[in-house]
């Protein structure tokens, strides 16, 4: 079949062997125009028509494809510089961590810009003694009946954050006639020194709080047999006696932790003792409530001061 001057010819390898010399109407044109637009060609091998871009345009497309591939490899994006996480990954940036502060209570005095101390009773003190050679914060109730010592944070932590965790390692020197609380409360002090005035029949002084509690007051008919998972939401109190875990033992370290998690329009809590989950509770405090770190010790025995040593405390919260 003769070659149509309007179409030109490419061989089976795609090489242009004959350039078209006429437009479709039969009029002639400059062969240089061939390199400026897409043309139709006829294959004598398959006897079919096909289109091909000019070689210059093909080369430009190859360059553009190469640039897009390099951009994709650099950012992980298909058509732009990519997401923020892709850019962070390209720049080898570590993820932004949650808020987390560890307190080891080093030194001879407490930082009053960070902590608030409240004491009530003869010889009630709260401080960081260095005589033991350890990094400790000690709550000492003193020898007055109902004497107490409380440590709270100056900063607050919003209850409606996605996740909040507070951890402590503590020990008490005497588990008779003593009250201990650890967790969160919406106040930095209470008149009677505790967020809950009764654990066996849950009665709250605080409006919103979630704590571990231990209360052994024989005169007040509060016979403490173990830790309790306490909570109060908008003045409504509840508590759970933890029968499985070991109750407080004198002069024995214990690790306690309370986790708060926002669940739709409520705040749920998980209680940990020595790393194990010992209780869970739902809708424990009101949402959007500023909460303080809360640690308190109270004596119900006028002749016997109680001491609670705090080894460390850590608070962490999602952003």
Which helices and strands, and how do they pair?
Elements: E1 9-10, E2 16-18, E3 39-43, E4 48-52, H1 55-75, H2 84-90, E5 99-103, E6 115-120, E7 125-127, E8 137-140, E9 148-153, E10 157-158, E11 163-172, E12 178-185, E13 196-198, E14 203-204, E15 209-216, E16 228-233, E17 236-241, E18 254-263, E19 266-273, E20 276-281, E21 290-299, E22 307-317
Antiparallel strand pairs: 1-2, 3-4, 5-22, 6-9, 7-8, 8-22, 9-21, 10-21, 11-18, 11-22, 12-15, 12-21, 13-14, 15-16, 16-17, 18-19, 19-20
What does this structure look like?
With 319 residues, the chain is mostly beta strands. It folds into 3 domains: 9-52, no CATH class; 56-90; 99-317, Sandwich (Jelly Rolls), CATH 2.60.120.200. It is built from 2 helices and 22 strands. It has helices spanning 55-75, 84-90; strands at 9-10, 16-18, 39-43, 48-52, 99-103, 115-120, 125-127, 137-140, 148-153, 157-158, 163-172, 178-185, 196-198, 203-204, 209-216, 228-233, 236-241, 254-263, 266-273, 276-281, 290-299, 307-317. Strands 5, 7, 8, 11, 18, 19, 20 and 22 form an 8-stranded antiparallel β-sheet that branches. The longest helix has 21 residues, at 55-75. It is elongated. It starts with 8 loop residues before the first strand and ends with a strand. The relative contact order is 0.16. The mean pLDDT is 82.
